[in-house]
């Protein structure tokens, strides 16, 4: 590799700007502009790629709308009602509150689609509840909040899967339904491990909720629980496009929060809009930077070079998927998930297509892998976030995370080796892959 080539210098600029604290999206735009300058190309190509990529994709509108729906659902009393429902279902089992922590991540998947947002919101609340009264060690509670937060972005509506649909052209509807079984599998292996740890370490069982209270608790949580059902129903019956479904989800979340639960006032709505705008802008800048940098990658013919190199090794589809898993797990230790999806996966997709790997299977496997990377030492972002939130040392947190990391990698292996785990539900919905 020529370290003085325009591409190498552009990469160095991106890394250098990022180390100096420049957001990754802006750093990628800066490095790409440097590349265009050094190559003597039209500098306006950066703006052209940015505008064409953003204005020609209506799917991008789904991201701020899903974020808005999540913000409305996270405000007011919706969170409390859903937590009571989760506690009524699994609180009576060994490690009751720990089981609730995992179940709430599954239930709250429709409220965020972002692992970092789940950890900072409901994950932080659960960590506080678990350590109250010395029920659970702080490091264990923080580790569980981190690992359970990776479940939500695999289940619909998933912002990472929306981003993958953007770069791959795959149906977002089939991707959403394909994420259901892997997401539930991830939750199941975590809850099974909690059961055995609770028996061994003597974790408490929560007080059983009287059977007579179950109808009331379910009735209170039912409108919020219906959001993913309505969302998926509209997508798979063809009533709405993915972007229209996201708008419907935001409108429904606002309706139940204001009209049914009466938990949002005008000030809360304003705050929700501002929070959603800030999150959308940060993701939008990252997408913009990736679109420009992907133009540079294409100009350098990197996807074709990588594809040719891997073909030269005479690699089987399964061997390719195993190599991809290894690469993504390593990158997930250092890079933010959206960056990997927008920059790295487009390089690997041509090879996957050439080898006959199903794009829906590949996308769900990659997103699951990237989410696991968020809790993989030494630099998993969720580890640093929960270490700060819970005020526990990183070494203690890593020690508690390791058993969960092993069972999640086991779930990833099942998803990789058994494509039907991913493709069964999409095929029932009419997917021909």
Verbal overview:
It is a single chain. The chain contains 21 helices and no strands. The protein has 433 residues and is mostly helical. It has one domain (42-428).
N/C terminus separation: 38 Å
The count of strands amounts to 0
Oligomer: single chain
The number of helical runs is: 21
The residue ranges in which pLDDT falls below 50 over 5 or more consecutive positions are none
What fraction strand? under 5%
Shape, principal axes of CA atoms: globular
Mean pLDDT: 81
Described by strand count, sense and barrel closure, the largest sheet is: none
Global structural class: mainly alpha
Query: How much helix, percentage-wise, in residues?
Result: over 70%
Short description:
This protein is 75% helix and 0% strand. The chain is an all-alpha fold and 433 residues long.
Give descriptors for this structure:
433 residues, mainly alpha, 75% helix, globular
Topology of this structure?
Blueprint: H1 6-19, H2 24-39, H3 44-55, H4 62-74, H5 78-90, H6 96-107, H7 115-131, H8 138-148, H9 159-168, H10 172-178, H11 180-201, H12 214-236, H13 242-260, H14 266-299, H15 302-312, H16 317-332, H17 337-354, H18 359-373, H19 381-390, H20 394-417, H21 420-428
Helix pairs in contact: 1-2, 2-14, 3-14, 4-13, 4-14, 5-6, 5-12, 6-7, 6-8, 6-11, 7-8, 7-19, 8-19, 8-20, 9-17, 9-18, 10-21, 11-20, 12-13, 14-17, 15-17, 16-17, 16-18, 17-18, 18-20
């Amino acid at each position: 590799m020529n370290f003085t080539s325009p591409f190498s210098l552009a990469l160095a600029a991106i890394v250098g700007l990022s180390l100096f604290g420049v957001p990754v999206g802006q750093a990628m735009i800066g490095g790409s502009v440097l590349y265009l300058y050094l190559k003597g190309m039209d500098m306006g190509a950066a703006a052209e790629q940015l505008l064409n990529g953003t204005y020609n994709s209506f799917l991008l509108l789904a991201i701020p709308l899903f974020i808005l729906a999540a913000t409305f659902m996270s405000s007011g009393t919706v969170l409390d009602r859903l937590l009571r429902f989760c506690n009524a279902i699994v609180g009576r089992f060994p490690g009751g509150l720990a089981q609730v922590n995992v179940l709430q991540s599954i239930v709250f998947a429709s409220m965020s689609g972002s692992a970092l947002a789940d950890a900072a919101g409901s994950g932080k609340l659960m960590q506080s509840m678990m350590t109250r009264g010395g029920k659970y060690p702080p490091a264990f509670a923080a580790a569980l909040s981190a690992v359970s937060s990776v479940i939500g972005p695999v289940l619909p509506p998933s912002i990472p899967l929306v981003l993958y649909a953007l770069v791959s052209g795959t149906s977002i509807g089939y991707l959403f339904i394909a994420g259901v079984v892997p997401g539930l599998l991830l939750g199941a292996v975590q809850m099974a491990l909690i059961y055995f740890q609770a028996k061994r370490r003597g974790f408490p069982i929560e007080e059983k909720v009287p059977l007579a209270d179950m109808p009331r608790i379910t009735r209170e949580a039912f409108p919020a629980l219906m959001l993913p059902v309505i969302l998926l129903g509209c997508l798979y019956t063809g009533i709405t496009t993915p972007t229209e479904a996201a708008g419907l989800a935001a409108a429904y979340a606002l309706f139940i929060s204001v009209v049914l639960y009466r938990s949002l006032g005008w000030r809360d709505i304003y705050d929700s809009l501002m929070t959603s705008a800030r999150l959308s802008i940060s993701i939008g800048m990252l997408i913009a930077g990736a679109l420009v940098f992907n133009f540079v990658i294409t100009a350098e013919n990197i996807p074709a070079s990588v594809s040719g190199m891997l073909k030269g090794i005479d690699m089987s589809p399964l061997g390719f998927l195993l190599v991809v898993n290894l690469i993504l797990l390593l990158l997930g230790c250092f890079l933010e998930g959206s960056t990997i999806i927008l920059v790295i996966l487009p390089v690997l997709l041509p090879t996957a297509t050439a080898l006959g790997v199903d794009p829906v299977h590949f996308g769900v496997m990659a997103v699951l892998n990237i989410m696991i990377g968020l809790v993989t030492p030494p630099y998993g972002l969720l580890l640093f976030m929960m270490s700060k939130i819970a005020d526990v040392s990183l070494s203690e947190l890593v020690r508690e995370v390791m058993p969960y990391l092993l069972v999640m990698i086991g779930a990833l292996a099942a998803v990789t080796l058994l494509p039907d785990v991913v493709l069964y539900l999409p095929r029932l919905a009419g997917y021909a892959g």
